[in-house]
TrEMBL record:
Entry's Gene Ontology molecular function annotations: metal ion binding
Keyword Nuclease among UniProt keywords: no
Keywords tagged on the record: Metal-binding, NAD, Zinc
InterPro entries referenced in this protein's UniProt entry, alphabetically: DHS-like_NAD/FAD-binding_dom, Ssirtuin_cat_dom
UniProt organism field: Streptomyces dioscori
Ligand binding (Zn(2+)): 140, 144, 176, 179
Presence of the UniProt keyword Metal-binding in the record: yes
Domain Deacetylase sirtuin-type: 1-287
Protein name according to UniProt: NAD-dependent protein deacetylase of SIR2 family
Superkingdom in the source lineage: Bacteria
Length: 293
């Protein structure tokens, strides 16, 4: 729920006005947006359902799967996790509603999320910058090459060898197609992260922002807290400072505060993304199974 005393309907009206006035929109998002869409890394019930063996070992959420695990368990976890959050074929309704909200405004997306939910929700993949990587790619751990590899066939191979009772995969573990060494999912964890796949979109976004210097730019930030503030939260604030006609709307139930030096150009919304979008958009109707084809 929104913070007590906060008028969410009034905030929605202000956001509608700011959106109408905006010439360009930059959507920025952290983990809170995907959590509001149903992919909450702290959800113990979902963790128990997907990873019963790891739950029996004492782990309680995906956030905690950073502890050392035997490689067979580690890859079993990654296969199930990525299949659940990255390769689900259905678009997510929350992301579809956000896409509908932006409409035909000139817009870009920058997100720390690596789940491709924006692209599956109807956003143009060529206008999405994911600086933290993508579960859809894997890389050499060394790395021996700047090339990354499609993780879909790898996940399918691992799932075919996965035993839910033990949480482990059997058979050969993944290896680098180039050097036969160890591999890891292409997400930013340390200095070995291969960022080559994301540099073209980074350059296109920077070019777009340069041409937005005199435009009325609205930054819509969803669910970006302080786990990695240098990726989403602080860059949005700095853009607002740098672009004279920019405004920032921060939607975050726990950390909605905005800097004092940006007073008058920001709006803090202490609510979940789905709660706000409930008031801003009309949900997509479910298909009528009785309708004639």
């Amino acid at each position: 729920m929104p913070q007590p005393g906060f008028d969410l309907e009034a905030a929605a009206e202000t956001i509608r006005t700011w959106l109408d006035e905006a010439e360009r929109v930059l959507i920025t998002a952290g983990a809170g947006l995907s959590a509001a869409a149903g992919y909450d890394y702290g959800d113990e019930d979902r963790f128990r359902e997907l990873f019963p063996a790891l739950h029996r070992l004492g782990l309680r959420s995906r956030y905690l799967v950073g502890v050392p695990l035997p490689p067979e368990l580690w890859w079993g976890y990654w296969a199930v996790h990525i299949d659940d959050i990255r390769f689900s074929p259905e678009p997510n309704p929350l992301y579809q509603r956000l896409r509908s909200l932006v409409g035909d405004k000139d817009h870009w997306v920058m997100t720390s999320n690596v789940d491709a939910l924006f692209a599956r929700g109807g956003f143009d993949p060529d206008r999405i910058f994911t600086p933290q990587g993508d579960y859809g790619r894997y890389q050499c751990t060394t790395p021996c090459t700047p090339t990354t590899f499609d993780s879909r066939p790898l996940v399918a191979q691992l799932l075919a060898a996965y035993d839910p009772a033990t949480g482990a995969v059997t058979g050969p573990l993944p290896s680098c197609p180039n050097c036969d060494g160890e591999v890891e999912i292409n997400v930013r964890i340390g200095p070995e992260f291969v960022d080559d796949p994301y540099l073209p979109s980074s350059r296109r976004l920077q070019d777009w922002l340069v041409t937005a210097a005199d435009a009325r730019l609205l930054i819509l930030e969803f669910g970006a807290g302080f786990n990695t503030p240098g990726v989403i939260r602080w860059p949005g604030e700095n853009l607002t400072r740098r672009i004279p006609h920019a405004g920032l709307i921060r939607i975050n139930p726990t950390h909605p505060e905005t800097p004092a030096d940006l007073t008058g150009r920001t709006l803090s919304v202490p609510a979940e993304a789905d709660q706000l979008l409930d008031r801003l958009t009309v949900p997509h109707p479910a298909p009528d199974p009785t309708a004639a084809s």
